[in-house]
Amino acid sequence: MDIKFTHRLSFKQARLTVLVGFALGTILSLVQIGIDYASENAAINREIQSLLDISHNPASRIAYNLDTELAQELAMGLLRSPAITGAQISDNDKNTLASVRDSPEVGRYRALSDFLFGETRNFDDRLFFNHLPEQSVGELHLEVDTYPFGARFLQRAEVTLLSGFVRSFLLTFLLLGLFYIMLTRPLVRVIRELSNSKPGDPNPSRIQCPPGHKDDEIGVLVDAANQQFDAVAREIEQRRAAENRLTEYLAQLENIVSARTQELKAINTRLSQSNQELEVARRTALEMAQARSAFLANMSHEIRTPLNGLLGMLALSLDSPLNAEQHQQLSIAHDSGKVLVELLNDILDLSKFDAGQLELEHIAFDLSTLIEDTAKLLSQNAAPNVELTCLIDPAFPALVLGDPTRVRQIVSNLLSNALKFTRFGRVDVRLSLQENRVRIEVCDTGIGIAEEAQARIFRPFTQAGAGITRQFGGTGLGLALTRSLCEVMQGQLTIHSKIGYGSQFCAELPLPCHTPAIAYKPLCGRVIAVSASSSGLSELLSHYLPLWGLEYQRYSLGQSLEGVETQLLITDDSACLSELRPSINAPILLVTAYGNFMPSDQVDTLAPLQQNARPLSRLALYQSVQLLLQKNDDESPSPPIDNVQVLLRARILLVEDNPVNQLVAKGMLSKLGCEIVTAAHGGEALRQLERGDFDLVLMDCNMPVMDGYETTRQIRQHSRWQHLPIVALTANAMPDERERCRAAGMDDYLAKPFRREELAALLESWVAKKYTS
Ligand code: ADP
């Protein structure tokens, strides 16, 4: 630690002090010299004046006496004074009595002295006697050289200045020493100790205070530095401790991580093992599911075939003449068989859901008609005091896109439940479109479902209460299937129900509109209805009749119609007709429950009267109203094709190897008025086709010699039979079966066992289509 001398604090302080002291000393010396100069200047005049005063009287006598000799002596005497360089005594007439001169002194201060005091000074003294001061006797003239005075003054000034400088230098050294001892040396020591101490040292040696500086600034500096050292040492200590703790934690963490890694490795190994096991299990499960599907398909085929025979035979027997007891026994057997078929279908559908095999169609279909048809089909199940009504929103699209079979299943499940659990009141099916979702609502006034049972009933094989099976039968599968169907169509099924008041099931399905609603041609006339305000018929009529341009008014039961003008009376109360007939001439449309038609003799007495069964479809209502209003002008729509006529003429080729099934189908077809030709296998079928014309072929799929698929392929190869309708008859109800039939060239599909209505509907659609196109 070496500080340059000129940079040291002691030097700087001493230099400043000395500079100030020197400047002050010089100024004081100059002031002193100035004073001295003024007094010396005055002393010259004073001294010469006193010389003149001394010489005044002798010189006056000499001038008065004109004594040149004495004058010379006096002048010489004056010249002895070192400052006098010339003396002259003259008389009153200015005559010189004596004049002496001396050369001026030469010295080193000459120039400066002359500058300060002037080179010479001249003094003139008028000579007179003291008692005659006004009378002058002559004049004494002295020429004074100022140099002796100036030299004396300058010597003094030189000494003053030099001594001042010397004092300053002495003071400088003295102060330098003192400052060095007092300031620089202790500071240098402190600095040296500071620079020797290491900043990161955990136990720094304390800096010693230089002796004698304990209480001054250096002492305070040392204390402050020591405190700082202590604080730094403490902090370092804390950091070191924290570092040690951190290292410990890290070590622990490393241990934990390695332990966890080991554990994870073990878990991973176990996981991959169980994954492999799971994969094996999954494969086994898949294989089992496939095996189950195959088993179900086979079983369903095996069960359906004898069931088909059983049901068909029972249906045929029921149509033959029987006594009441036999009829009842066979009916029970037939109904039980039907329940068995439904159960089989439900179980099959559930298994399809489980196996994810349910495939949905996406075709355009008339949902309104589908609902009306389903309601009509199920109306036979309605209790006598239950009014079943279909209320289709007039704005509902004519065709929507979706799977008609599955939608029919939903409607028929909900509707058959509603009819099953309702003994009095109404069952309504409402169809509307809300926010692009089709809304199918089935409301009843039946027994209702308790709040706590409402979530449960959607689980398979679950019913609302313990007594339900005993009282109403059922398997508890319908709603589970319905909900699954709704969900698979991206829709939802909701329920609102109150026990004792009834239930409302609502299926909301996203079925896109294909063809918008088609408006009915307006009718003209006045129609009245006699029905309870709460009846389904009243709601239906008030819904449609005004929309078709008819003037409509409802009267309550028992209300007098005396004087009421109308062109048509619609009622659902046959009992009041005999009372009403006398006052009403207009035709009557009687809407009754299925199987409650009036006997023909009563009809004749009340004529003109037409009877329609509930539920009234829109088309049936429109056509009946139109007919009864006798509106037969040119613009009226052509009457519907008489499908029964068509079916009577239909010639069907039935290809079926199983003699029981052959018998059943034959029986049903002949009941429908068809002409039937049978073939036991594909080869025979081709031969029969060669022999004559047919309107439709009913083709069993599994047959010996040539199966249904191959036979169809061969039929389609002939251009003659390109458009001949071929409908598959199969007991295999699995989804890929339909696709297989289509691929072979068949047009439709009927699962065995089938009911006569299903067969009739199928013939209606294919044979009627053939005749109308
Ligand atoms: P199932 O009718 O064959 O028993 P579902 O799954 O169709 O099976 O119905 C389950 C249960 O839900 C029924 O047993 C019945 O308790 C209740 N349920 C369904 N629909 C109705 C309804 N409309 N009114 C009252 N209860 C109903």
From TrEMBL:
EC number: 2.7.13.3
Chief site of localization: membrane
Catalytic activity: ATP + protein L-histidine = ADP + protein N-phospho-L-histidine
Keywords in alphabetical order: ATP-binding, Coiled coil, Kinase, Membrane, Nucleotide-binding, Phosphoprotein, Transferase, Transmembrane, Transmembrane helix, Two-component regulatory system
InterPro entries: CheY-like_superfamily (IPR011006), HATPase_C_sf (IPR036890), HATPase_dom (IPR003594), His_kinase_dom (IPR005467), HisK_dim/P_dom (IPR003661), HisK_dim/P_sf (IPR036097), Sig_transdc_His_kin-like_C (IPR004358), Sig_transdc_resp-reg_receiver (IPR001789)
Pfam family, one: HATPase_c
Positions of transmembrane segments: 16-35, 164-183
Location of the Response regulatory domain: 651-767
Subcellular localization(s) per the UniProt record: Membrane
Start and end residues of each Histidine kinase domain: 298-513
Domain of life (superkingdom): Bacteria
Coiled coil: 232-284
Keyword DNA repair in annotation: no
GO MF annotations in UniProt: ATP binding; phosphorelay sensor kinase activity
Broadest EC class assigned to this enzyme: transferase
Residues the record lists as 4-aspartylphosphate modifications: D700
GO cellular component: membrane
SMART domains: HATPase_c (SM00387), HisKA (SM00388), REC (SM00448)
PANTHER family: HYBRID SIGNAL TRANSDUCTION HISTIDINE KINASE J
Name of the protein: histidine kinase
